[in-house]
């Protein structure tokens, strides 16, 4: 595929959900998300693909050819707040273009090829990442999912109903999982380790998200003496630094990127601070070491500050080793493509426990992701389409 062909299709969604920051606000079940779903349906219809939603809101376009279990590809449309353009949509656009390439070459698959658009992969609206694939795999309780709320207090169930979907249907879908013989997700690289245009994933680091609550005594910023204060913001500030230190010493990663204060007033001491910790590591032992050391130190600091501190897991994902035979087969097929791990979570990481799964990465020259600076050249994206088409041809023949 040439770069112009990629750009032509890519530009059709390039402005959908773009914010003034240059990043994107593409949240699941929003008007923007529904517009992207409509675009997906229209693109599938142009290609004669059969489209359906599963019970969890994931969208699938089927190239109904051949017999037996199908080959699944695709990714997601939703973004983190003010995220980049490529994280997710690149895998869907590339899958559509790969189908175009296969058809243009005269290829007829011996088994179905299916393009998936998974919902709430980032957890940017309802807080649980890979929610659509987790529900399908049966690793998130449907009642818990229905009760999840966004920052405005809207539940997932309410958002789905407003979009015309049925939240009562949420739940495991083992029959659908059994209908796939392999899943290959193409994704923009979230780092800058790749020197070649396309690489193959080896594994996803174990990772998780934890909600932290710091409690104290709200009071007047101008009249409350320093010795009389029980300020949870101080404990929170210590926690941010402690997370970074524990991760650095252990050889992992820890980030506090979201915080909410009550009453969130300039001239008031906060009564409560809620924040979220994201931590990742090369293996489960290192991740546990980071969390244990961090929790111990923050609890000790809270005692000294006269504040309260609790921490609760919102999601935890163990290390994912992608199917070794599939990984090596794809790397060889692509002429010895480089193989590398990633610290980012993906729907592929969830489905890998149920379906032989692999990932392709398209080079990201800046390494920036989850931010407006995320990018990839049209030439590398076109190379990604070619690679995906070759993989689909091999797996569906």
Q: Name the overall outline.
A: globular
Integer-rounded radius of gyration: 22 Å
What structural class is derived from the secondary structure elements?
Answer: alpha/beta
Helix content: 25-40%
- Summed over residues and divided by their number, the pLDDT gives a mean of 96
Number of strands: 15
Q: List the secondary-structure elements in sequence, H or E.
A: HHEEEHEHHHHEEEEHEEEHEEHEHEH
- End-to-end C-alpha gap: 21 Å
Strand content: 15-25%
Low-confidence stretches: none
Total helix count?
12
Characterize the biggest β-sheet.
9 strands, mixed
Give the tags.
single chain; 397 residues; alpha/beta; nine-stranded mixed sheet; four-stranded antiparallel sheet; 35% helix; globular
Written overview of the protein:
The protein has 12 helices and 15 strands. With 397 residues, it is α/β, with parallel strands linked by helices. Strands 1, 2, 3, 4, 5, 6, 13, 14 and 15 form a 9-stranded mixed β-sheet that branches. The protein has a 4-stranded antiparallel β-sheet with strand order 9-11-7-12, with helices on one face. It is globular, with a radius of gyration of 22 Å. The mean pLDDT is 96.
